Records
---
Amino acid sequence: MKIAVIGAGYVGLVSGACLAEFGFDVFCVDHDGKKVAELNAGRIPIHETGLDKLIHDNREAGRLHFTMDLKAAVAKADAVFIAVSTPTRRGDDAADLAYVHKAAADIAAALDGYSVIITKSTVPVGTARKLKAQIRGLRPDVEFDVAANPEFLREGSAIGDFLHPDRIVVGSESKRAQDVLRKIYQPITQSGAPLIFTDFESAELIKYAANGYLAMRLAFVNQLADLCEKVGGDITVVAQGIGHDQRIGHHYLHPGPGYGGSCFPKDTRALAATAREAGAPFSLIEAVVGANDKRKAGLFQRVAQVFGGTPAGKRIAILGLAFKAETDDLRDAPALELIPALTAASASVVAYDPVVSKNGAPAFAGIDWADSAYDAAAGADAVIVLTEWNEFRGLDLGKLAKSMRTPLMIDLRNLYSAGELAKTAFTYHSLGRQTMKPVTERSA
Ligand SMILES: NC(=O)c1ccc[n+]([C@@H]2O[C@H](COP(=O)([O-])OP(=O)(O)OC[C@H]3O[C@@H](n4cnc5c(N)ncnc54)[C@H](O)[C@@H]3O)[C@@H](O)[C@H]2O)c1
């Protein structure tokens, strides 16, 4: 079976490599010539555990190809996945489908026989139907089907998520398309993953509903943490206490600096926009968007308060820049809001992230870079933990504190426990727990 994947980003690369691993002949197409050249030179443009090897092995086996030539990739393809970006549209909150429609037009021009065109990008309800009309309008002469097949992988565990999904969702209107998709996913379904066939609209809504619900849990636990800070109580214990309720569960109940990344921020906005447009306002999701924006915008104030109102003149070490651990993705990362606010307030910032590159974002212009968490902390007035990288969990906190000008930590991921901090000189501010004073003050 020949498969084309349009868009070689986080989703397209992982999907393409996994499909090649199943033995299909896969052509990943991207209009970014630099990216394609990098991939063809054996360099992987994103950080995703295991992806280098998967891509290398499948290229060696001759099953995985990277190209800018969409026409050749789509010719004779049994299936064409659209995995291009769907960012927030400039000027409003809806998803910008310009890349999707451009890809659909290019695919239409290249079709030379029956093929299933599959949206793997996250697209608003109604998109599959529109694409079907678009392609039919451009190519009344060819046989094709459209299917909506949202992707649920998470960056950082993307390969495992693709290969072992909780479910596969396919919206389609044709038995022939279902058969193609059934065959493509057979290596996954045979190990037990449910394959849900549904209509276009339900498939598209399932993706937004899942992301909207998870974002809502994060906004909920963040506000609960704020409440704990005001009235006493420890969010870690409170979250555990509710998470043990089997109707609730433990996932997505960890407070943080506000969700970021390439999905939750834009997908919650797009869901709210769709609901407004449809005349069924989703006030819960509107509130989640507002709460998360406020949380990220409030990070600077949270830090400034620790310094009695302003961090001016302080040297601040930031541990972690990516929006979450195990990825280099900076899209909508809290660091992009906090760091410019700190530098604008005349704080000097030094950052360390295990994988984010120095020229990762214009927001980082002018900051210093360290080669390790210890380097970053040396001589600093405060350490701020922004990303929950595992390597930060095992830091020698005593050593870290000793190297600092003032041993102050603002932990926006709640990585450390009272027990770990008990023998250190740290004054420790975290989320939804009471501030811990240094050991000398505690014993005084
Ligand atoms: N990143 C995730 O964790 C994730 C998870 C599930 C779903 N999604 C969804 O998948 C889609 C892609 O996300 P991503 O993170 O992979 O985006 P990305 O920005 O990393 O990659 C998109 C790629 O598409 C290419 N592209 C855009 N238009 C093109 C065209 N017309 N022809 C060829 N190439 C084109 C871009 O150059 C880019 O390399 C989005 O809709 C996103 O919401 C993302």
Note: Residues 6-12, 29-32, 35, 83-86, 99, 102-103, 121-122, 151, 153, 155, 262-263 surround nicotinamide-adenine-dinucleotide (CB under 6 Å).
---
Amino acid sequence: MGAPDVQEVPAVTTTSRAVRRKSRPAAPPDPARPFLPTTEQIRLLDPAGTPLPAHPDYPAPPVETLVELYRRMVLGRRFDLQATALTKQGRLAVYPSARGQEACQVGAILALRDEDWVFPTYRESMALTARGIDPVEVLTLLRGDWHCGYDPAVRRTAPQCTPLATQCVHAAGLAYGEAYQGRDTVALAFLGDGATSEGDFHEGVNFAAVFKAPVVYFIQNNEYAISVPLSRQTAAPSLAYKGVGYGVPSERVDGNDPVAVLAVLTRAVAHARAGHGPFLVEAHTYRMEPHTNADDAARYRDADEVASWQDRDPVVRLETYLRDRGALDDTTVARVAAQAEEYAAALRERMHDKPTVDPLTLFDHVYAEPTPQLVEQREQVRAELAADQEGAG
Ligand SMILES: Cc1ncc(C[n+]2csc(CCOP(=O)(O)OP(=O)(O)O)c2C)c(N)n1
Ligand SMILES: [Mg+2]
């Protein structure tokens, strides 16, 4: 039997369904409508930094907050450059840069309270420094010293997740637990475009929706999952449509417009905090650097594409807007730049110190009760270290 001839069957589209419905009684209002994102990305500044007409649902945040957003974005960018340089000096094992994604990394943090929880991935080092975590503690994982350099419970920030999308489930569980105990904590889970293809993303979003867990799922769609472009990741018109199937209101935003990112996330966080359940935001952005320092991006994307995103630089865009509003002048810009240099110099200095790491602590805190396998592996490492020391002595 040959394969059926599918070419003669027209694709089903909403247009063809609408035509069929014409002869039927008027359809009730679309119950999916409240969950759907806007057809256009939310944008409050044009790419040059000129304000667009006010948006009825997304008022621009107060100007003092935007100046602070600018300051942390400049520091974040400088931190990121420094971290990339540290990989070249052998001080860091690996670094996934977020250059170009500053509006998302810092905007998300400013939308939260200190008591809220952040669930970051390996890409969010900049976001963690914007949260005020010591940059050396942020880089502990990427230096290969330990699983996490800061105390997650104190900083209300989970360790950076390398297994894709696992943080989506953790965020749902934590947020549900907090709400169950009567607290109005919000959890914000960062994820990338590639992570939306993982089962854990769908399970986390579904659980959060059904149990009204106050989570904001924040997708930074930077167009690539390592070398895999978005067109090979999804056939959906926007990743923001992934919310509707689970009954989660969703929005899409220009991820290189810092004012819009903060406005949209502020509303998303307020929605979750008010007890309405999760919210999903897709930010359209771009990573200017390779996936990590170990990747060669020239093998899968061309220079013209990268250059076209340079014109939408989020730091320049916000600076132009604030200068035009009279909220930023040369003196403040120079002061922020000097602060960023000091921040990077202090980090550089401290990262030159040789880390003192006891390899056996790697096995601590993996489980509350270590498994027999972990006990055995720990013993193997201990014996090897002891033999090394005997050999050296
Ligand atoms: C479960 C799992 N599968 C595969 C990988 C390997 N991996 C690491 S990063 C990455 C790409 C992720 O892309 P995206 O979610 O778009 O995030 P981005 O790196 O662009 O920020 C992949 C496939 C992984 N870490 N975890
Ligand atoms: Mg990506």
Note: The beta strands are 117-119, 187-192, 215-221, 224-225, 228-229, 250-254, 279-284.
